UniProtKB/TrEMBL annotation:
Record flagged with keyword Phosphoprotein: no
Organism: Alkalibacterium gilvum
GO terms of molecular function: transferase activity
Entry protein name: Rhodanese-related sulfurtransferase
UniProt KW keywords: Transferase
InterPro entries, A to Z: GlpE_sulfurtransferase, Rhodanese-like_dom, Rhodanese-like_dom_sf
Length: 105
């Protein structure tokens, strides 16, 4: 079903930290290089330029994060059009205060 002007739900990084668990689907839509510099444990790297190819049979909510929240919002719109339940993480990694894996952030 096509939804016009559908708002993308969003949460803060603090709210995301409370939501994270083993089953949370978290997509990091930054470039591979940015991802390797530091990412949230369990996040899957799926760069924005490839998000249109994303396929997952999950009916779970997908959380989307980038560096500042702009690319993730664009990615969330693409995923929402593909009928995924999506939540954008406002402020992205710039606002994340939790632990990271990989390089220094």
């Amino acid at each position: 079903m096509f939804k016009l002007f559908n708002r993308i739900p969003s949460i803060s990084t603090n709210q995301l930290e409370k939501e994270l668990n083993n089953k949370t689907v978290l997509l990091d839509v930054r470039t591979g290089g940015e991802y390797r510099q530091g990412h949230i444990s369990g996040a899957k790297n799926y760069p924005l330029n490839k998000i249109g190819q994303y396929k997952n049979k999950t009916n779970e909510t997908i959380y989307v994060i980038c560096q500042s929240g702009m690319r993730s919002k664009r990615a969330a719109k693409v995923l929402q059009k593909k009928d995924y339940q999506v939540i954008n993480v406002r402020g992205g990694m710039n606002q994340w205060n939790g632990k990271v894996r990989g390089g220094k952030l």
